Amino acid sequence: MLDTQLTSSLSYNLFRADQVRENEAQAAADSGCDMFTLMQRAGDVVFKQCLELMPNSDTYLVLVGQGNNAGDGYIAAINAKLAGKQVHLCAVEPQRTLEGDAGTAQQRWLDSGGSIDGFEPALLEKADVVIDALLGTGINSYIRNEFADVIDAVNASATPVVSVDVPSGLDANTGQSLGRCVQADVTVTFVGIKPGLVTGAGKQSCGKLVYADLGIGKAFQALAKASATMLNIEHFKGMGPRDINSHKGTYGRLLCIGGNRGTAGAIRLASEAALRSGAGMVRVYTHESSVVQVSAGRPELMVTDYNLEDALAWATCVVIGPGLGQDEWAETVFETTMKHCQSKNKPVVIDADALNLLCKQSTAYTLSDSILTPHSGEAARLLGVSIDDVESDRFNYARQCSQRYHAVCVLKGAGTLIDNEKKTWVCRHGNPGMATAGSGDVLSGILGALLAQGVETDIAAKYGVVLHAKAGDDIAQLYGQRGMIASDLFDAVRALINH
């Protein structure tokens, strides 16, 4: 979940940590303030978030390191003390005198009657809330043991945590844990939202993400170019009303290919999702053993197990992969489909086992209007790297995937990424309840349906991902996350696409 305190487009843009560091002083000057004023504003916002998280809290534990992040922590501690809270402030090096603005904040804390102590794990049990100001965005190498020990103790405790700018130990650009990482309940990030906070493990570590521009947002945006953009459902106007004088052919002929022996459900989910997303006609090419299972109870689907060439010639676009398998039947079907789509310049969504077959012959095909939908395991195979590699730098590998295959890459997961070789977008919606069998098949069907209705490839990828994820959020809000199944999304997608 992302709360924003700014309604401008800046709240949807992502900026690397180095962009913030390099431009914030100039942005502050252009906005008529100095860096210490920013520090004061940051500390104020952090304290306010603590009050929102734990409104009746009396005891605060503030953990500080040695940089400007610590300075924000000192200001938050001063605010808490002035509000009558009992504040324990612990530093990794209690005797160290900080320099610059952080040093000014440290001295003000001491002047207010505060003390700086070493960390004791027992303090966690006494505290109602922890302010994590240990490590900021400047860290990009594995953290030292003295910090790791504190982070371990914080994570082992049940005390709520508010992190300053970034959870300590998290790489703000990639979302990778640098050996240890605080698991925050709330993270307040400043000036620009950092990419590592919104996808993969970084999204998990942040908890609720709160953005504060500290009054310099417009000036900063004028100086720095966004590295990626956040997407939510409000960014899309929807499909609009249909023309009165239209017919089923107006809205595309989609062919869904997959459903090998024993995996009929995958292609059934994809094809039914396509119908519910507005495709005019949907045909399914599947294994002979799957025909009855795919067509049962859904007569609107045209299902066949023979003459793939005719089915491909009929289609205006294709989805291939759900339940496809990787046996001889699958390889033959894949090769025929890819050759046809390449020669006819036909839009295609490539998912699941079709991705695994694609990585075996990546140089054989060049498709101009294709969408690849890998999870991290499939992306790892497509790029010849490990899953850990992909998860440690999702933005980088989404871009590599789109560039290698000259396709729009949808890298699925928490904070799904969409990359078209030039730009990257991040989906704000989605929840862990969607980690269920068939959810990805539904996404493929939605993407195929949008392509069938003539939506441009980039927009289809972005809108389809957001529709799918927001539908999951709507279902979770109604019934909860546990027990959500892929077909639950159909009605929610239909409602959203008509909104």
From TrEMBL:
<keyword id="KW-0418">Kinase</keyword>
<feature type="binding site">
    <location>
        <begin position="412"/>
        <end position="416"/>
    </location>
    <ligand>
        <name>AMP</name>
    </ligand>
</feature>
<dbReference type="GO" id="GO:0016301">
    <property type="term" value="F:kinase activity"/>
</dbReference>
<dbReference type="GO" id="GO:0052855">
    <property type="term" value="F:ADP-dependent NAD(P)H-hydrate dehydratase activity"/>
</dbReference>
<feature type="binding site">
    <location>
        <position position="323"/>
    </location>
    <ligand>
        <name>(6S)-NADPHX</name>
    </ligand>
</feature>
<feature type="domain" description="YjeF C-terminal">
    <location>
        <begin position="231"/>
        <end position="499"/>
    </location>
</feature>
<comment type="similarity">
    <text>Belongs to the NnrD/CARKD family.</text>
</comment>
<dbReference type="Pfam" id="PF03853">
    <property type="entry name" value="YjeF_N"/>
</dbReference>
<feature type="binding site">
    <location>
        <position position="132"/>
    </location>
    <ligand>
        <name>K(+)</name>
    </ligand>
</feature>
<dbReference type="InterPro" id="IPR030677">
    <property type="entry name" value="Nnr"/>
</dbReference>
<dbReference type="GO" id="GO:0046496">
    <property type="term" value="P:nicotinamide nucleotide metabolic process"/>
</dbReference>
<keyword id="KW-0479">Metal-binding</keyword>
<keyword id="KW-0547">Nucleotide-binding</keyword>
<keyword id="KW-0456">Lyase</keyword>
<protein>
    <recommendedName>
        <fullName>Bifunctional NAD(P)H-hydrate repair enzyme</fullName>
        <ecNumber>4.2.1.136</ecNumber>
        <ecNumber>5.1.99.6</ecNumber>
    </recommendedName>
</protein>
<dbReference type="GO" id="GO:0110051">
    <property type="term" value="P:metabolite repair"/>
</dbReference>
<feature type="binding site">
    <location>
        <position position="69"/>
    </location>
    <ligand>
        <name>K(+)</name>
    </ligand>
</feature>
<dbReference type="InterPro" id="IPR036652">
    <property type="entry name" value="YjeF_N_dom_sf"/>
</dbReference>
<comment type="function">
    <text>Catalyzes the epimerization of the S- and R-forms of NAD(P)HX, a damaged form of NAD(P)H that is a result of enzymatic or heat-dependent hydration. This is a prerequisite for the S-specific NAD(P)H-hydrate dehydratase to allow the repair of both epimers of NAD(P)HX.</text>
</comment>
<dbReference type="InterPro" id="IPR029056">
    <property type="entry name" value="Ribokinase-like"/>
</dbReference>
<feature type="binding site">
    <location>
        <position position="165"/>
    </location>
    <ligand>
        <name>(6S)-NADPHX</name>
    </ligand>
</feature>
<comment type="similarity">
    <text>In the C-terminal section; belongs to the NnrD/CARKD family.</text>
</comment>
<comment type="function">
    <text>Bifunctional enzyme that catalyzes the epimerization of the S- and R-forms of NAD(P)HX and the dehydration of the S-form of NAD(P)HX at the expense of ADP, which is converted to AMP. This allows the repair of both epimers of NAD(P)HX, a damaged form of NAD(P)H that is a result of enzymatic or heat-dependent hydration.</text>
</comment>
<keyword id="KW-0521">NADP</keyword>
<dbReference type="GO" id="GO:0046872">
    <property type="term" value="F:metal ion binding"/>
</dbReference>
<keyword id="KW-0630">Potassium</keyword>
<keyword id="KW-0413">Isomerase</keyword>
<keyword id="KW-0808">Transferase</keyword>
<dbReference type="GO" id="GO:0052856">
    <property type="term" value="F:NAD(P)HX epimerase activity"/>
</dbReference>
<feature type="binding site">
    <location>
        <position position="266"/>
    </location>
    <ligand>
        <name>(6S)-NADPHX</name>
    </ligand>
</feature>
<feature type="binding site">
    <location>
        <position position="168"/>
    </location>
    <ligand>
        <name>K(+)</name>
    </ligand>
</feature>
<keyword id="KW-0520">NAD</keyword>
<keyword id="KW-0067">ATP-binding</keyword>
<dbReference type="InterPro" id="IPR004443">
    <property type="entry name" value="YjeF_N_dom"/>
</dbReference>
<dbReference type="Pfam" id="PF01256">
    <property type="entry name" value="Carb_kinase"/>
</dbReference>
<feature type="binding site">
    <location>
        <position position="375"/>
    </location>
    <ligand>
        <name>(6S)-NADPHX</name>
    </ligand>
</feature>
<feature type="binding site">
    <location>
        <position position="440"/>
    </location>
    <ligand>
        <name>AMP</name>
    </ligand>
</feature>
<dbReference type="InterPro" id="IPR017953">
    <property type="entry name" value="Carbohydrate_kinase_pred_CS"/>
</dbReference>
<dbReference type="InterPro" id="IPR000631">
    <property type="entry name" value="CARKD"/>
</dbReference>
<feature type="binding site">
    <location>
        <begin position="136"/>
        <end position="142"/>
    </location>
    <ligand>
        <name>(6S)-NADPHX</name>
    </ligand>
</feature>
<dbReference type="GO" id="GO:0005524">
    <property type="term" value="F:ATP binding"/>
</dbReference>
<keyword id="KW-0511">Multifunctional enzyme</keyword>
